[in-house]
Amino acid sequence: MTNDIDLRQKILDELEFDPRLDAAAIGVSVRDGVATLSGRVASYAEKIAAEQATLRIKGVRGVAQEIHVVFPSDKKTGDDDLARRAIQIIDWDTTVPDTIKVKVQDGWVTLSGQVNWQFQRVNAENAVRKLSGVAGLTNQITVRPSVSAADIKTRIEDALKRNAALEAENIRVQVAGGQVSLEGRVHAWSERYAAEQAAWSAQGVTTVNDRLVVA
Fold first, then answer.
1. Per-residue pLDDT tens over the stretch 102-140
2. What is the residue-wise DSSP string for 32-65?
3. Measuring CA to CA, which residue among 77, 72, 63 is closest to residue 41?
4. SS3 assignment, position 153
5. What is the DSSP letter of 178?
6. Which is nearest to 11 in space by CA: 60, 69, 49?
7. What's the burial of 92, exposed, middle or buried (CB within 10 Å: 0-12/13-18/19+)?
8. DSSP secondary structure of 3-29
9. Parallel, antiparallel, or unpaired: how do β-strands 114-115 and 101-105 relate?
10. Distance from CA of residue 185 to its chain's centroid?
11. 74 contacts: CB under 8 Å, gap ≥ 6
12. Which tens digits make up the pLDDT trace of 24-66?
């Protein structure tokens, strides 16, 4: 079993390896498998990249995100300009419908509206968080439920069985309307993420409550 000191070093190595990051600006502490990230970065995209890199490490049970996005004063973007650019970049993505609304306050972007698929919700967020000037992002876009709970449950269970990275028999799926709950145990955070993505891949899913335990 990996101890906290070894786990911290693996995270530091992964941050250093990731070309999207300035690892020298990011601090890492680990306690009982939970990593706390601190420091200052120049973009929201870099903050998310640090979190993603940390979650790739086997043995990480959770992440406390305390990194701050700090812009040089000469590069700070006005909220009105940022909102216009966010709308424009969403419009450029042909997979995302024109139902998304954008609100910006002090560099913090809030997305709202409805889409038919989870990937459309994710694509809108991914497009906007790459923009310079974004200090943070809240995704309030909802997915319209359009299929029965029984059909959603079957599709998710089939997707879990097809995924070679997962032991599907250890995962229980419960569906109520478009809300999905995943329960059981997985061996690594990457498996937990894979199970969650499999759940989101089913049409009609509006919420995924990931209660899987990494053990």
1. 999 888 999 999 988 888 999 999 999 888 888 899 999
2. TTEEEEEEEES-HHHHHHHHHHHHTSTT--EEEE
3. 72
4. helix
5. T
6. 60
7. exposed
8. -HHHHHHHHHHHHHH-TT--GGGEEEE
9. unpaired
10. 20
11. none
12. 889 999 999 899 999 988 888 899 999 989 988 988 888 999 9
Calpha distance 199→203 (Å, rounded): 9
The residue behind tokens 């449950």 is: 153
d(CA 37, CA 11): 10
Picking from 204, 206, 205, 207, the residue whose alpha carbon sits closest to that of residue 147 is 204
Which DSSP state fits 111? E
List the structure tokens of 140: 């309030």
Residues 134/76, Cβ–Cβ less than 8 Å = no
Task: Say which DSSP state 177 is in.
Answer: T
94 sits in the region (left: phi over 0; alpha: psi -120 to 50; else beta) called: alpha
Strand ranges in 128-191 using DSSP code E only, listed in sequence order: 136-139, 142-143, 171-176, 179-186
Side chain identity, residue 79: D
